Task: structure prediction
Amino acid sequence: MATARKNAQRNAGYALHVFTASGAVFGMLALQAIIDGRVRDSLIWLIICQILDGIDGPIARKLDVVIHAPWLSGVVLDEIVDYFTYVIIPVMFLLNMNMMPTQYETFVAGAILLTCAIWWARTDHKTDDSWFVGFPCMWNLVVISFLLLKTPPTWVVVISLILCVLQLTNIKFPHPVRVTVLRPFSITISVVYLLAITVMSLNYTEPLQSPSLLTKVLLLSLPVYATVLAIWKTWFVVEKAPRIKKKVKARK
Result:
């Protein structure tokens, strides 16, 4: 009985690892859609990648995959897939959709790839209470927002370079689910944002119409909210210094 249960837990753990790795396959479909000029399809595949990444973590913790499926590192697997779907594909989207002035494309694309690689390699890119240190590499959502908001090319360059710089700073950005501060509201606004870009992507047609006021509010709500929390956490929260345990001398 115990052996059967152990095998079931192991199989579930490795099945979840495969589920995480499938994000790379969906990312490939997004990339192919970009190359083929199928904008709507590429947006949908990118959103599917985002949803997969959002749900595999909680399931992994529920299944204790670190204990039951230790042959694969879920952390390394997740980061490999994330760099592909959150960075490389969005950069290809930026380049293929001509969203920036031609003379700046290579520089901005290179800056994004470089700073994201450095951010992921940082040993301090996440705090113990689940805040990101430096802007997290959510370029999939950034690029989708650029497109749906019809952001002017010059502003795409400026905002992209600002975000690249922010990735190298110690400014703390909230994780939408794991940060306990205002968690219910954070989850709500994140879900609304994701639903908004999903609906807009499903209804994407060319030529894209100028965004309505409602579209702007929905797509800017999460970035503005995250920025406010980042400012509060970074400059207005006094972090508690770790306690130093005093050594007790043994009695002679």
About this structure: The CA atoms of residues 86 and 138 lie 6 Å apart. The chain has two domains: 1-85, 98-238. The radius of gyration is 21 Å.
